[in-house]
TrEMBL record:
UniProt GO molecular function: methyltransferase activity
Protein origin, superkingdom: Bacteria
Membrane topology: Multi-pass membrane protein
Pfam family, one: ICMT
Compartments in which it is found: Membrane
InterPro entries given in the database record: ICMT_MeTrfase, Metal_cation-efflux_comp
The protein's name in its UniProt record: Isoprenylcysteine carboxyl methyltransferase family protein
Record flagged with keyword Lyase: no
UniProtKB keywords: Membrane, Methyltransferase, Transferase, Transmembrane, Transmembrane helix
One BP term from GO: methylation
Amino acid sequence: MPWYVILLLAVAAERVAELVVARRNAAWTLARAGVEHGRGHYPVMVALHTGLLVCCLLEPLLADRPFLPALGWPALALALLAQALRWWCIATLGPYWNTRVIVVPGARLVGAGPYRFLRHPNYVAVVVEVAALPLVHSAWLTATVFTAANAMLLTVRLRCENTALAQAAPA
C-alpha cells in the first residue's frame, strides 16, 4: 500500500502541474480572443477527478483490497501509458491545450502528434486512467463507479468541445 499511496500522490502532483499549464494557456488563449464554452460542467469534472483520487485511496484501505500482481501490474502499465499519452497531447497542442474548453476563433485544428490518429486522444488517456488507476490496488468498485460517471461526463464534454471547435474553425 505505501507504493500505491506514492503513486496517487504523484498523480495528484501531476494534476497540479496540469492546472498550472492550463492556467497559463487560458491566459494565452483569452488574450487572443479565445472563447470559453461549457463552464457548467467544469466543476463536475474537477469533483469527479478529485473524488477518483480520494476513492482510489479509501477503497483499498476501507475494504481491505489486496494488491493482486496479475491485475495491479498491467493496470499500472496502462495508467502510466495514459499519463504519457496525456502529456503527448499537451505538448502537441502547446498553448491551445487546456482543462477548460477555450477556443480561439479562426485557429486551425491541430493535426499533429496523436491528433493524426484520433480526434480526442486526451480523452482516451482519461478513460484508460479512470479505469486503470483504481485497479492498481484492486479498487474495482471505484473503477466501476468512476468509469460510469466519467462516461456520462464525457458525453457532455465531447458534445461541448465538438460544438465549440466547429463554431471556431475556419471555413
